[in-house]
Amino acid sequence: MWERILTLLRKEFRSVLRDPRMRMVIVGIPIIQTLIFGYAVTLDVRHVPLVIIDRDRTVASRALIQRFIGSAYFDAIAQTDDEDYARSLVDSATAAAILQINAGFEHRQHGGSAAPVQLIVDGADSNTARYVVNYASTIAATADNAIVFERTLRLAGRAVPFGSVDLQPRAWFNADLESRNFYVPGIIAMMVMLISLMLTSMAIVREKEVGTIEQIMVTPIRPLEFILGKSAPFAVIGFIDVGLITAVALFWFDIPFRGNFALLLFGVALFLLGTLGIGLFISTVSRTQQQAMMTTFFFFFPAMLFSGFIFPIANMPVFFQWLSLVNPLRYMLVVIRGVFLKGVGLDVLWPQFTALLTIGVVVMAVAVSRFRKTLS
Amino acid sequence: MNLRRLWAVARKEGLHIRRDPRSLGLAIGIPMLMLLAFGYALTLDVDRVPFVVWDQSSTTQSRDFVARYTATPYFNFRGAVTNYTALERAIDAREAMLGLIIPSGFARSVDAGKPAAVQAIVDGSDSNTAGIVLGYAQAITLDFNRQLALEQIQRRTGLSPGAGLDLRTRVWFNPDLASRNFIVPGILAVIMGLISALLTSLTVAREWESGTMEQLISTPVQPTELILGKLIPYLAIGLVDLVLAVLMAVYLFDVPLRGSVPLLFGAGTLFIVATLAQGILISALARQQLLASQLAMVATFLPAFLLSGFAFAIANMPVIVRGITYVVPARYFVALVKGIFLRGVGLDVLWADALFLAVFASIMLVAAIARTRKHLS
């Protein structure tokens, strides 16, 4: 039996890796993907392009403007009195916000009333807009505090102390709030899933499409051996990709690795059980490679989106949160991020490992039994 | 080019599609499924953030401070903890995103007119959420400070200095900051790109793999007719997808469509042709379906998802990556779709994006035809 599996393995490795371009793809895609993710995927917002309309032109208005552009959050890209021009800059997405100070700003501020300031924010990108609103209200609150302090000084003739809360933020696991640290480890799970799903399902369906599956069926190879021989190469490729992506993450992006690498590999093994099973299942319901590819996507997309990879699960409607409980990617991401960033071990991650194992065994059992039926 | 031959190729390809109802169904189903997912379930909005408090002060003042947090819809109070380990465990187990530590001297400092340090510990592993959470916390704290200052000044001096500044924020195009309005038009572009690439990346490779390419070569069909003929049925599917997706965005998700509908579909057609041609080019280069599918992933889906600006703002990327986005057709289409949907602007603002898309589509078509010609001879 082992001899037959070994023969099949060799044949399978050869048919996948025969094409030098395919070899490039297997090594190249994970690296390219990691690099793009590491560099491109950031939801952090800095240097928001700001248009300034200052109709007051006084010391007070300039001081407020300075508070905005003196921070790292805003860059003044234009100062104008022409509202239409300012609007056109927002329309074309050149500017993300307009700060408008109307005449009388300083006068009202000195007169002891609240001086109005307008901030117009481009809401088309709601994520950036939320940051802009947060930044601006922080800056405004600080400015307001300074104004109240000065005003009291003038009115009372002395400095009146007032208490305040000094919030000292500390971000655990990711002190600089680098989005890279969050996304890059997750790519491991995503790549392993995509490769094991797509390559397994397409490789098996290709035998059907070209007709070689009949030839294999007349050999003494048994279904289980066929499955093992077909899926093992992709498991191996999956593990190679884990190594590659981890290397890029550690040595290129300086992502911290605080946990145990062996534990990570163990998690990947359990995860692969499930994804290879799904790949196998897809192969049983597909006749052509195109069908296999599209069915893979039909599964892979929701799995990726409802895993917490980019969009937090806690923000989803309850129904989808329940749905995500059967998604192996969800658990794998917790394991990977836990091992990379938090350095936690089995004592914290055992529920995820149990879930991965359960999903893996169930899916594999269903897929194998279905596969046997389609072969015979 | 002969129209009759072109039509024959188109009919042949159409038959291929018709004989494979599942692929056709998926070509319609995947976009609908993704739109539903994005419209209903996926949001970057952050609210009801779970938080715990370790209140070592336990005074009216400290409870007053915590009440500010519980009063907003942004935070969801998950209970008090009485030591650091419990707070640590709550964050480790992801039961809380934020932990506030109020020192025992809180009330004393505040009453004495001195700053009191409160630690805000946030789970930073999801940096985007963490950044927004800290922004909320900061805003609530500053608001607390403002009121505290006014109260204490009044108590000490009898003066009421009043507020100094009144920031009036207005959000254009999307006043509620609903991330749905931001994501749905963008995802429309991503889906269209993905589907077109999936549809055509295998068609020419399949002909090579199954050996039918040789038969096609022996017919009088010209490369131009072959490529355009293969493209026509898929363009039809892509347009059906586009119509359905726009209808869903507008009627199901209430995303405002403020600009010109013909312009939207014009841009959509250009984009579909560009990505279909790109898929055919990949297919012609790879000549093997497994390889073509992998190449299509890297060349179309990834850039459309990551480098198009649909969720991740291009302005925040490093210069080199920003440079790469200029050769990603989805970038232009995302700009067009968002401009037409939310801003309601027309070609006077968007002409450059439309032009780039047209240029890209032509280059891809010519390259796909040239590549096929080379193989034929």
Verbal overview:
- The complex is a heterodimer of chains A (376) and B (377).
- With 376 residues, chain A is an alpha/beta fold.
- Chain A folds into 2 domains: 8-41 and 177-375, no CATH class; 48-156, 3-Layer(aba) Sandwich (abc type-2 transporter like fold).
- Helices cover 68% and strands 9% of the residues of chain A.
- In chain A, helix 7 (179-210) packs parallel to helix 10 (261-284) and helix 7 packs antiparallel against helix 11.
- The radius of gyration of chain A is 29 Å and the shape is elongated.
- Chain B folds into 2 domains: 3-42 and 178-376, no CATH class; 49-157, abc type-2 transporter like domain (abc type-2 transporter like fold).
- Chain B has helices spanning 3-18, 21-41, 60-70, 84-92, 106-111, 127-157, 179-201, 203-210, 212-218, 223-252, 261-286, 289-306, 319-325, 329-343, 347-376; strands spanning 49-55, 75-80, 98-102, 115-123, 165-172.
- Chain B has a 4-stranded mixed β-sheet, sandwiched between helices.
- In chain B, strand 1, helix 3 and strand 2 form a beta-alpha-beta unit.
- Classes of the chains: A alpha/beta (376), B alpha/beta (377).
- Chains A and B meet through helix 2, helix 4, strand 4, helix 6 and strand 5 of A and helix 2, helix 5, strand 4, helix 6 and strand 5 of B.
- Strand 5 of chain A pairs parallel with strand 4 (115-123) of chain B, so a sheet runs across the interface.
